Amino acid sequence: MAIKDYGKMLRSIIANVNNYIGSQVEKYGIKQGQYEYFLLIYSSPGINQLELARLKNVGKASVTKALKILEDDGFIKRVTDENDRRNILCFITEKGEAIVEDLINVKRNAEEDLFKGFDEEDKDIFYNYLSLFHKNSIALTSGITHILEEE
Q: pTM here?
């Protein structure tokens, strides 16, 4: 019986999708990683950097680096929260608004291509399995997090 390498398949899918997205957004000077932050900020105007780090499951330094590039290129602006000066809020600029539809279409096109051959029931079943898979992956790391907090 052949061993099924789920990890290899998942990494390959992620790499393929990231390569596709990167190729589609590079004309705007945006990299794939920045693209994800851009869409999160667009969908949640005023989101703070800590929430972005939590949603992407990355460190604050990674968020800061990606946001600086987007800000320097004029796609987003970061504003200090008047109620809590430690809190930095993120917004899409006019320049960012001008490319939002194109960037959303990149995501839409990728999803349409990925789901070729799936009917709606297949998509629902896949989503349910993927949700369970995600939940189980979080459980995998809960022990690691606990160990790291004790050190």
A: 0.81
